[in-house]
Amino acid sequence: MTNPVGFNFISFKVLRSPAFLQKPSMRSPITSSAFSPILRLSFTNPKCLCTVSIPPAISEPGILEKSTSKVLPHFLDDPNQKTNFPEKTSPESGFPRNSSSAYPGSSQDTVPTSQIHQETAPLSQNHVIDALLCHVNDPKSALKYFKWVEKQRGFIRGVDVFCVLLHILMRSPETYVDAQKLINRYVSCDSGPRSAVFFDRLINCAKRFNFELDNRVLNYSLNGYIRAGRIENAIDFFNCMICEDVIPWVPCMNILLTDLVRRNMIDEVRDLYNKMVLRGVYGDRYTVHVMCRAFLKEDRVEDVEEYFRETKERGDELDAGAYSIVIQAVCKKPNSNLGIQLLEEMKEWGWVPSEGTFTCVIVACAAQGNMVEALRLKDEMINCGKPMNLVVVKSLMKGYFAQGNFDSALNLFDKITENGLVLNKVTYSVLIEGCCNSGNVEKASELYTQMKLSGILPSAFNVNSLLQGYLKAPLWEEASKLFDEAVDCGVANLFTYNIMLSWLCKGGKMDEACSLWNNMVNRGMVPSLVSYNHMILGYCRKGYMDMASGVFSDIIERGLKPNVVTYSILIDGNFKKGDSERALDLYDQMLSLDIALNDFAYNTIINGLCKVHQTSGARNMLKKFLEKGFIPSCMTYNSIVDGFIKEGNINSAFAVYGEMCEFGISPNVVTYTSLINGSCRSDNFDLALKMRNEMKDKGLELDVTAYSALIDGFCKRREMETAQDLFFELLEVGLSPNTFVYNSMISGFRDLNNMEAALVWHKKMINDGIPCDLQTYTTLIDVMLKDGKLVFASDLYMEMLSKGIVPDNVTLHVLVNGLCNKGQLENARKILEEMDMKNMTPSAIIYNTLVAGYFREGNLKEASRLHDEMLDRGLVCDDKTYDLLVKGKFKGNQSPVKAANG
Fold first, then answer.
1. What is the rounded distance in angstroms from the CA atom of residue 30 to the CA atom of residue 53?
2. Are 561 and 573 in contact (CB under 8 A)?
3. Residue 827: which pLDDT band, with cuts at 50, 70 and 90?
4. d(CA 179, CA 172)
5. DSSP per-residue letters across 219-285
6. For the chain, which terminal residue's Cβ has fewer other Cβ atoms within 10 angstroms, N or C?
7. Under a CB-based contact definition with an 8 Å cutoff, are residues 617 and 626 in contact?
8. Phi-psi category of 439—alpha, beta or left, where left has phi over 0 and alpha has psi -120 to 50?
9. Minimal CA–CA distance to 313: which of 269, 282, 346?
10. Is 0.85 topped by the overall pTM?
11. Cα–Cα distances in Å, from 309 out to 44, 314, 522?
12. For residue 344, what pLDDT is reported?
């Protein structure tokens, strides 16, 4: 074996004693020895412990720059600007030697290669270390010796040997690269010790052999672990450095932090950075990049803002990249004002924002409705030579649509089309959705067609947006055609089916909904809980509670879990059917399943109890809900107030009104309308007017319902002058009177026997295009009959029937009473016969009126027959009928309409 470097190395004598040479068996002394397998393997193939691919050194040109996005300084330059390598240590500095005769002493004593026996004793760690230390001032020679000795049979490289070599290599800048290569190869090997052990040996060897510790070797090692992907080892090595008060170089720290961010190990990023900060190291501008991105990984925008603010206050170095990242963060919030401020700071530093930075701020401005700034920044971006991209276009369009500025959105669309900017699917989606939400379904349909012609395949989102627009229009035929097309093309998804299902169920078209359901299932679509909820809602609205319960059972059988929406729909349906017991059972069932109630569920239960005239129970239930954390709204209290009003309990209604105010909830128009209506019903018009004035003082404007309640109340009090004043006040504030208001005015003048004024108001009603309802015709027929205009009364009655308005007992009583008063008893009795033909049961007041008529005519026989017929129908004989039969008189001086209602 030749000596490649001319070293004075140790010559070992071959042990040839009989004991050594004796071979008791045919087995190899190596393979049969008690040595460990790894040691035996090293004897047969010593390269197995050290032969690994060498990754590029950290100081090779471009390598470190690539690992840190070409921003970190070269590791060959000491970041502390001290001397490049420690003072050299003399070989006479007291290093331990096994034997002074281990080395011949000079190059003249070198043993020729021919004298070296083929079988030599293994080189010990101490021998190698001793040899390396002899050439401590010649790092290149030490490295050549190490490479040579690595190839010797039986040599096992120890950690201490490697650490001594590294310390020697750190003594000359010429061997920095070699040290890095060795470290990279060493830390990449699986057989090496843990990073903490390696660190301890590096420190220990420096102390044992009196080396001045060069921070390069530690930073090279840290970087080597990172490059090898051994991130846990890198963290441990970093912590070891911190514990020994060895501050890692900032570029190394940046590389480690970047790798941790890439791995989403944000807690470790915070921990390592905080340890550096505690030692007064805040990093550089690239550290700012890394930390901001770490905060953004967790969507902690506030932390980004605080960190950036502290960095500026310390006066740390920043660059355009750092500003761009922070702007991206604050705009994600979005905080367009701060984004604009940071953008201005960038320009003050002389940095031109990138297209992406401009885009972030424009998007934030548009999202917050600040279209003026969004458009200004758009123009500024274009003036800086940055093109207007589709993200900006999309954001500006969404901003216009959000403000209802439909024309500006379309003008922008036309402008970018003229400039040759090709729209993509996302931009078309924004336009189609915006047009549909704005009610311009025609334009949305045009854009949908244009998108298809341009070769862009519509997505399910596009179909669903246009489908909802058609149904809202409503354009059922177009919606049905689009739906069929989407199904045939395979674009329709479950949401598409649910849109159609919802529309059919809300419209009560349950047969069509069932057909669609079957079609959906046959095409392999699995109905979701939303689908089932739509069906339950449809059946509840139709009052088919058995069918709704059946669908509910299907949900359970399919393994789905009903949610709060499911239960709320069923509870509401049962309340509307008057089955409060079943509704409350469902509520208890929901609680037993630990389903959390939302505001809709709470309000559904309270409103339902009020609808079934259990308002006191609703009030008590509200107290329980408050204990569970429910925060009532104005709508909650309105239900209870209205419930008490309809039950005639005006005092309780005002008590709840007081509780509402104490809770800090301001009454709205609906609240005051209910109180005004209740006050009028209880004939307390002063209180009603007080409520009206209170509304005005709070800046609330009365709606038609509130005016209707006041006008109706004063009409019933026959204070027609006040009623007319309120009517014209209603017109002055820009409201349109409805049928109820006109009916109140007509009835009021009728009760004053001012038939002419009643007819004037009817004429005004017709001229204003207000449709007449049953009450209108009933009142007008009564007016005509009282005025003796039987022909006009008959014409009105026929007109009413031609409009499909079915008369009720009140209307028929008005006719019977008018005919009886005019002596036309036979015509009056025919009305009774018509009611029999239509399976209508005449009321007792109608019989009373006919009995009275026949008594006046002296036809007691017919009067008695009608009385018996009345009893046969199960009608209870009241005092009026009794008086007619016994005393022969009838108290019929009041209006027949009032008598019928009484």
1. 28
2. no
3. confident
4. 10
5. HHHHHHHHHTT-HHHHHHHHHHHHHTT-PPPHHHHHHHHHHHHHTT-HHHHHHHHHHHHHTT----H
6. C
7. no
8. left
9. 282
10. no
11. 63, 9, 60
12. 92
Residue with tokens 């379904």: 441
For the segment 455-477, what is each residue's pLDDT rounded down to a tens digit?
999 999 999 999 999 999 989 99
In this prediction, residues 94-111 reach a mean pLDDT of 34
Pairwise CA distance, residues 483 & 467, whole Å: 7
Angle between helix 320-332 and helix 336-348 axes, rounded to 10 deg:
170
Nearest-CA neighbor of 552 among 580, 571, 578? 571
Alpha carbon distance 490, 109 (integer Å):
90
As a whole number, the mean pLDDT across the chain is: 82
Q: Which residue has the tokens 């359901």?
A: 517
List the Cα angle 577/582/583 in 5-degree steps.
75
Query: Which residues, 6+ apart, have CB-to-CB distance to 850 below 8 Å?
Result: 816, 820, 825, 828, 829, 832, 866
For residue 768, pLDDT beyond 80: yes
How far is residue 610's CA from residue 643's CA, in Å, rounded to a whole number? 5
* Residue 464 token pair: 């669903």
Both structure tokens of 324? 């761009």
Structure tokens, 369: 């409705």
How far is it between the farthest Cα atoms of the chain?
164
How many residues are present in the chain? 902
- 745 vs 743: CA distance, rounded Å: 5
Region label for 105, one of left (φ > 0), alpha (ψ between -120 and 50) or beta (otherwise):
left
| pLDDT in the model for residue 481 | 95
Short-list 177, 197, 172, 174, CA closest to 187: 197
Nearest Cα neighbor of 322 from 341, 340, 304, 299 is 304
d(CA 66, CA 89): 36
Torsion of CA 69, 75, 77, 80, to 10 degrees: 90
Query: Which pLDDT value is given to residue 702?
Result: 87
Comparing 880 with 845, the larger pLDDT belongs to: 845
Report d(CA 850, CA 511) in Å as an integer. Answer: 47
Nearest-angstrom CA–CA distance, 595 and 873? 51
Q: At what angle do helices 704-716 and 720-732 cross, to 10 degrees?
A: 170
Closest CA to 548 of 593, 588, 519, 508: 508
Residues 151 and 37: their CA atoms lie apart, in Å, by: 19
Structure tokens at 6: 């001319």
Give CA–CA dist 7/152, Å, rounded.
15
**568 alpha carbon, distance to own chain's centre:** 22
Would you list the DSSP string of 669-692? Answer: HHHHHHHHHHHHHTT-HHHHHHHH
**Per-residue three-class SS string for 368-400:** CCCHHHHHHHHHHHHHCCCCCCHHHHHHHHHHH
Cβ–Cβ < 8 Å for 614, 646: no
Q: Which two tokens stand for residue 566?
A: 């499911």
| Residue 750 exposure: Cα atoms within 13 Å on the Cβ side | 27
Closest CA to 902 of 892, 856, 301, 83: 892
Q: Per the structure block, which two tokens stand in for 894?
A: 């009041």
pLDDT greater than 70 at residue 893: no
Reported as a single tens digit per residue, the pLDDT across 230-278 is 999 999 999 999 999 999 999 999 999 999 999 999 999 999 999 999 9
